[in-house]
Amino acid sequence: MLGEIGMPEGTQDLTNILEVADLSVSFEGIQPLRGLSFSVARGASLAVIGPNGAGKTVLFRAIIGAIPFGGSVRWALRMPALAMFRKSWTSIAMFQSPRSIS
Known about the structure:
This protein is α+β, with helices and mostly antiparallel strands.
């Protein structure tokens, strides 16, 4: 099952720059993302945090269309998601959660 990446109709007046609906990813018998839905408003910040293996990188790869997924990803900008991702990579940061060593 492949998801859809596109732009919502009537993007001239959108308040959300990204809308993700029912996003699911599975591979090798693992389903790191299941039924994830969220939106990012224009001018807002979004943090994706979690332990190693929680699916953060899988989420980013899915929303830029780098891996197959179920559900839909809609960008409000008029350029392909992957090109936008490459242009804006400097504004995306990924941090691993700290581990305590006992």
